[in-house]
Amino acid sequence: MPTATLARPADHRAAGLSADGAALADGIAREALRDAMQQLSQAEQADRIGDAGHASAMCHALTETARALAGLHAYGPAESYLAQAQRWALMMGGHDLRADLACALAEVATNAADLARAQGQRARSRAARERARDHAFEAARLAALTTDPNWDVRVLLRASDVLDRCGDHDDAVQLQQRALVLMGLGQADLPPVDPQATSQGNDTDWLTSPGALM
């Protein structure tokens, strides 16, 4: 276990900027960021450095900071704080929280890719989309190790949603099929995916949106 808190991301000063570099306006979202940063500072100053309780507090505070930043479209800093949260989650052991954070990283990276594409930054968009894919596949891997089958389903659906947004439709459908099996609505031996059928998405349109499950 560590004897000191992990350093904040190198680009934490960007917390005061939006994704396009403009200053963030005051308001509810900005206030949420202030509250999250204050919570993070308190967690960093806690005396219980190195114990499981402190790791949990740090992980929660870092995640809330990332959530607030993502709400302001500051996706780069949000990814950095989530990466910090992942390190604390690893110290805590278990797979459920790590799978959840991998999903969050995948979702934030996908949003970053969409924003970069809208701004005409193709190389940056491709890089963010590759990160999103990597995080989504890691989430799917960890899903098989979680202790709660319902949590497994939620993780798989979130990862599937990210892959679908990244254009990996076949992989997205495969994860949805894994979720169906866990829900008792599919068979263990699934037939090969028909690219034409999966591109239309008719077989899985009834599924609840992954984001709504979390």
Question: Could you explain the architecture of this structure?
Answer:
This protein is 66% helix and 0% strand. The protein is mostly helical and 214 residues long. It folds into two domains: 82 residues, no CATH class; 95 residues. Helix 1 runs antiparallel to helix 2 and helix 2 runs antiparallel to helix 3.
Spell out the helices and strands N to C.
HHHHHHHHH
Number of domains: 2
| Structural category | mainly alpha
State the distance separating the first and last CA atoms: 30 Å
Strand content: under 5%
The description of the largest β-sheet is: none
Helical residue percent?
Answer: 55-70%
- Would you tell me the overall average pLDDT? 76
Radius of gyration: 18 Å
Give start-end ranges of low-pLDDT stretches: 1-25, 188-214
Counted by DSSP, the helix tally is: 9
DSSP strand tally: 0
Shape summary: flat
What's the gist of this structure?
With 214 residues, the protein is mainly alpha-helical. The protein has 9 helices and no strands.
Identify the notable features of this structure and list them briefly.
disordered N terminus; disordered C terminus; mainly alpha; 214 residues; 2 domains
SSE layout:
Elements: H1 28-44, H2 52-71, H3 75-92, H4 96-118, H5 122-143, H6 149-165, H7 169-182, H8 195-200, H9 210-213
